[in-house]
Amino acid sequence: MIECRGVTKWYDAFRALDDITLTVRAGEVVVIIGPSGAGKSTLLRCINGLETHTSGDIRVLETAIDGDRYRLEHVRRNVGMVFQDFNLFPQMSVLSNVVAAQRLVHRRSPGEATSRALMALDDVGMVAHQRKRPYQLSGGEQQRVAIARTLVNDPAIVLLDEPTASVDPELTKGIVELMNGIARRGVTVLAVTHEMGFARAVADRMIYLDGGELVEEGHPDDMLSHARDERTRRFLGAIRRFDPTGAEDESPWAPPEPATLAERT
Question: What is the pTM of this model?
Fold first, then answer.
């Protein structure tokens, strides 16, 4: 479904992605983790053609992502993306936001688009808010609308770019439940997230990026219990010490004790 071969992305003198090679199979749920600035969101944006990669090859649904407008339109009809900052049209109602996505992407009739939008909003518990504008909603509610807008187009692939990052901690669990629901629909999911509960519940594979480099990958249980790379272990230790959901961490992995002064020197 997604193939990246030697993908590199430069912003002037800054290398955001460093020779990334990655394959995501049909129906697979892959979670990308890593520190801020690791290149996680950049990778998703390159896969969706929102950013142009500098070198290497990206193919989505066997279609090259190479800047060709017609090929990109084909990909975007089948790939949905949920952003961390919602990206709703502020001048439109909740219902119109979800209808517009279908009209623009699939050219559905107004009647069909409205019917599908109402069902999608009902799925995420937002049908009662259909006439509101985005500014009248909480962050969690806006993110639910953004998820409905993605799912209403029946995508084969869903890209999730830290969908809980702009959501209040008390609302995070609800968004994670929706993410779990997306993954269990059988669609292919590539998600950037710090939600280890989501990774443990539904992910087939976890990938750790650092400095634009794919450091290691494996099953979430294996990564959480015995990550091979010290950078991965250090990052996961920090995640375990700060869990905004308040959920218990049942994974067996525990961060190593801090080195003594003698060991550090």
Answer: 0.82
